[in-house]
Every structure is written in C-alpha cells, then in structure tokens.
C-alpha cells in the first residue's frame, strides 16, 4: 500500500513543488490549501502524471480548528491512513516594530504557529489511530533561529515553531512518530520574498534590483535557497533513513546559520 502524505499549503509555490516531488517519490498526496481551486489544480496535474487517485485537493483554513479537523476526517475517509504531514503554510508581514500592527502580528502567529499546532495535533491522532510510524515536518525558516529585522511577528512565530516541534517530538516518540522542522534560507525567487523586496530595499536604503544580491552575499555558499534544496532534505527526513532523528531544526541555509 502506498504511503500517504498531506501537504498543508500545497496549492502554490513551494508547497506545490513539494506536493509534486513527494508524488514523484511514490506517495499518494493530499493537497490542502486555503485556495481549493489551486489545490485541485495541483492534484489534477499529479494525477495526470501518476494516475487517477494519486492525489486529491481539499480546502483548509489551517488557522480554523473545525476546518483542520474536517481535513483530517476527509483524509482518513479517502485514504485510510497518513504517513507524512508537511506544514508548509506561511505568511510574512514586514514593518519596524514601532509601526507593526497587532493584527499583522496575530496573523503571523495564527498562520505560522497556531496552524502548525492544529495540523500536527489532528494528523498525529490519525497516525496513532492507524499505528503508523509517521513523520511530521514543519517548513520553518532561519528566522526561527535568529531574529529578523522588521519581521518581529514572523520571527516570533517561527521561534515558537521550534519549541513546538521539540515538544511534539517528546509527546509522540512513544508512538514512533518523528517531528522535525526545516529551517530554510532565503527563497529568493519565491513570491513571498519577491513581495517583500520593496520593503527590504527601503530598510537597506538601496534600489529594489540590488536586494537579492545583498542577501546572496550573506550566504557562504553564495546563492539563495531553492525549492529543490528543501525537497531533498524533506524526503530524507520523511524516510526510514532518518528514523532516529526527531525534535531537530535542520538548517537549509547555505551556511548562513550553523547552529
């Protein structure tokens, strides 16, 4: 029986790439996204490549408890198991702390941390129910290890994700379920990073077109983080080869962060 992966935030950009890469690795895939049209599109593309029934799209608001519970129930009803849950939903709002609104701070915490908690809780229940030695993997950021100027909400939530990952790992070790966070470097070509370039340019006092190079220059390996870099590490930590690794925050930063 094929293993089943759930990717929350799988309808576009990095999440879409991970869904397709996970399917290529032999999993059936639940593509879950706030935008169900995007989720269905990604699932359809996977099914065209790998055969009908390989993937299915679902709507989910990861910040809403009832919505996450329904996603878990629908997954169980459709695929009868879950082996891997990837939390890839995320949002960033940038502003100096003196201008940072409470609503933006709470949005960052809700999407980046509370949603991770809810999804991990509900899919852990399914793994325990089916006696699956499953994997829970959070897509985190180097901003979860080092503070990020003008990104207090995002960084605070990502730091919280590290603590949550460690706590979940302790809670779930008795069931053979591992929990890890992937700490990404700057995904320079991602829509999220590109959307923040004008704010970063203003912060740095440079033209927009120079921002990417500034961030590349901070990396010892002299390039940004690519989607493929993330997929490569994710597939290892999802595999049996990483069965003795849990509660870890794994850097994918080109050497920019080394602890």
From TrEMBL:
Pfam families: adh_short (PF00106). This is Sorbitol-6-phosphate 2-dehydrogenase. The keyword Ubl conjugation does not apply. NCBIfam families: PRK12384.1. The keyword Secreted does not apply. Keywords: Oxidoreductase. InterPro entries: NAD(P)-bd_dom_sf, Sc_DH/Rdtase_CS, SDR_fam. It comes from Gilliamella bombicola.
